[in-house]
Amino acid sequence: MRKPPAILVFLGVCAALLALVPIGYLGLRLVEGFDKAVAEILRFRTLELLGNTFLLVVSVSLGALVLGFIQAWLTTRSNIFLAPVFAVIATLPLAIPSYVLALGYISVFPNFSGFFASWLVLTLATSPFVFLAVSAALVRVDTASEEVARTLGLGRLAVLRKITWPQVRPAATASVLLVALYTLSEFGAIALLRYDTFTRAIYNAYRGSFDRTSAAALAVVLVLITLGVIWFERRYRGDYLENRPALGKRLRVDIGGLRFVAAALLVTVGVFSVFLPVFSLISWSIEGLGVIDFIIVINALWASVSLAVLAGLLIGVFATALAIWNVRYRSKWSEFFEGASWATHAIPAVVVGLALVFFGANVTPWIYQTTVMLLIAYLILFLPNALAAIATPIAQVSRNLEEVSQSLGTPANRTIMKVVLPIAWPGILAGMALASLAVLKELPATLLLRPTEINTLATRLWSATEDLAYSSAAPYALMLVIIAGLPALALNARARKALSEVKG
């Protein structure tokens, strides 16, 4: 087994240890009130929350997988017209925070709430994760095997199931893992749509009665669910595929008259996921035009963008190191530390924030309520976002190139810098863009950890929303959507570039 470079191990271990801080905080709370925590876990209410959470996670994951896969296949492999336009539309929901999407629906349909409402909003919000991953995988599929299967008499569905799906399954399941963890940790949209899950119960325990022990007990259950989801995904995912030279042409499948049905489907998805919430925000903004303080808006915009860029760079460095360590030098230790980085992703951001408040006040007071502490929170929360996007392109770099480089006497560190990183760079940029996008939309941890002089678009939006001042909140929400749309479009650039290479 090859020995990984020390810098990879150091960065990977640091990232994992930081991610474990919230779990340490939960453990401390459980030790302080063990009997009460056990009683909380054994309550019938906890079983009800477990059922609600499980139902929502499974349904959203399946919904996002089906919707994202259909969008990806239609825009990359079918002869549907305006494919590049539909590819951009499929990515745009990334720019809209789920709580803003929920507010858009509530403003139009006041009684919009419950399980179906939560499922619809979260499915529309998370399907771009699947679309981006599957699109990137589909354009790398060697279609020669598909052509051979067709000549042997297999139908289109059989080819899709037996030939195409096994090749894109690792990317698809990795993105579904991200969807599942996103759903597990979601609070804003769930609270607005009044559907009881663990995140809402934890938030109510903290805010309503400041019952830290009960909240910690529920958060522990959430962590165990997360570990179960990760275990299941790894068993089903399969091995990543390396890039191989295409032996066949990248032909588009002629779907005939179904092109119009497919286009209508994609247009409908775009209306419900993008047009409706944006139209709602524009209407609110027009109503609040006379009360807008543009200086405050610009300051909030600068704070949001600067934090997103800094956090994206930081997360990109740690995620790349951890991905290279686990993919190119896989071992039990690399798998353990990668799993540790994922384990805390489902902990609500409010719990992560409170854990870092406790940690900063008692262990590192010199960085308490500073930008550094806020960046650490973003690293803990969104490292998996980047890791899911970066691991696949790194795994697809041919190992033969590394072996040739090392046979010429090039050290492992230099090989990574000169061979692996340049080839995987588009995927690394995509991971950094995903992390920056998540930071732009993050709310609870920012509220708890930001320096007093910093207000982001999200915090300004939330403050106005708490006062039910939707017309005042709309300008911040609309600006947030516009700014978040930039990295969303950047993520789509890879798909559009791939589309230009598709022949037929």
What does this structure look like?
With 504 residues, this protein is mostly helical. The protein is 79% helix and 0% strand. The chain is built from 22 helices and no strands. The longest helix has 35 residues, at 294-328. The chain is globular and about 65 Å long. Residues 240-249 have low confidence and may be disordered.
Topology:
Blueprint: H1 6-19, H2 21-32, H3 34-41, H4 44-77, H5 83-91, H6 98-108, H7 114-138, H8 144-151, H9 156-185, H10 188-192, H11 198-209, H12 212-237, H13 258-287, H14 294-328, H15 332-343, H16 349-362, H17 371-395, H18 399-407, H19 412-441, H20 444-449, H21 457-466, H22 470-501
Q: What is the H/E string?
A: HHHHHHHHHHHHHHHHHHHHHH
Q: Would you tell me the overall average pLDDT?
A: 78
| Helix content percent band | over 70%
Question: Over all CA atoms, what is the radius of gyration?
Answer: 23 Å
